[in-house]
Amino acid sequence: MQIFNNWNIVAKGWYIACTSRELPRKQAKSVEICGQRITIFRGEDGRVRALDAYCSHLGTDLGIGKVDGNWIRCAFHHWAFDETGICQNIPCQSEIPTQAKVQAYATEEKYGFIWVYPDAVAPESVADFDELKGKEIVAQPDTAFERSCHHHICMMNGIDAQHLKTIHHLDIKMDLSLHRSELGTQIDFTMRGQFPQTTWRERLGNKFLGSSYEYSMRYANGCIGLLTMMKNVRLFPPLHMIYAYTPIAPGRTRIQPIYVTAKRQGFVGYLLSRFLLFCTRLAYYMLRDEDGKIYDNIRFNPKLLLSIDQPLAQYMDYVNQLEPSRWSKSGVNSKVKIQN
Fold first, then answer.
1. What is the Cα–Cα distance from 207 to 218, expressed in whole angstroms?
2. Beta strands in 221-329 (DSSP E)
3. How far, in Å, CA of 304 to CA of 264, rounded?
4. How far, rounded to the nearest angstrom, does the alpha carbon of residue 334 sit from its chain's CA centroid?
């Protein structure tokens, strides 16, 4: 089955529902994720749950219901569902039908967002940067935007060596190393090389950062990209940013940029962390608009790949080995069942 660039397939992975601050304690709301209506609610214990939005009784959107302890009660007939999606209370009768349940989804709060996984249990957490594991972090989201192509196409931008020269005027030759996680859900591309000195950007980089460069792209579940820049250079620690992708309609992808750095102690540490977040944003903005006109005007059809395009071919192979989720389109229609 081809998953790459296939709008009918949603691979299992972590997708953004909303920011954490949008969901206060004991509040519920419904959101659209990958074409699915999902109700998220925060219980009185502060934890976030996620369920299919429509009540298994008559189909009322649970997002307009009320949080009752750590359950969500439907606004219509007040059926109450727990975090597993199983109905725990029906006011009009004590007996609860076994079919009184809705699909539950794993959730995680990270980088200032609520993430939802299209299954009840996620095999791994939202992806981390190796350099930041075990550290307290500061995350700063930027404004989300949309592109007119599949997110699998957008995601290859960071490993497209040809476009560094043709679009960004960086004549960089890369030595590529590749690592795939044990589960096969993550793949790391690390690029290393020596700065040439043919353009002003390259000469500036050589002067301030050193003669060599290194950056890496970690792809998680084919829907999250973690970029680490300025690795092993002078003056700067590594800079980190996340691209979180969500298909919102055939031909439209939403991209959420998030800048990330380690939290540092004291006022000086605070200022340094904010400065690094600003530098990450600045580096991203220097490249984003140059790429945008390409990805808003592309009909991807790879008929001829060169040896320099090997990372792109490897990325496509990685995506095609991911697992489709229940959110993928199918022709199966559910049947209405009536229980006494």
1. 28
2. 224-229, 239-249, 252-262
3. 48
4. 29
Determine the length of the chain. Answer: 340
Query: Could you report the per-residue pLDDT of 304-337, keeping only the tens digit for each?
Result: 777 777 888 888 899 999 999 999 986 433 333 3
Q: Which amino acid is at 168?
A: H
Q: Do residues 63 and 52 touch, judged by C-beta distance below 8 A?
A: no
Using alpha carbons, select from 130, 124, 148, 129 the residue that is nearest to residue 12.
Answer: 124
d(CA 91, CA 89): 6
Residue with tokens 């031909």: 251
Burial class (CB in 10 A: 0-12, 13-18, 19+), 91: exposed
Least confident segment among 92-96, 162-166, 283-287, 335-339: 335-339
At 118, the amino acid letter reads: P
Tokens coding 316 = 């496509």
Q: What count of other Cβ atoms lies within 10 Å of the Cβ of residue 271?
A: 11
Q: What is the pLDDT of residues 184-218, one digit of tens each?
A: 899 998 887 776 677 776 677 677 777 777 788 99
Which tokens belong to 318?
């990685």
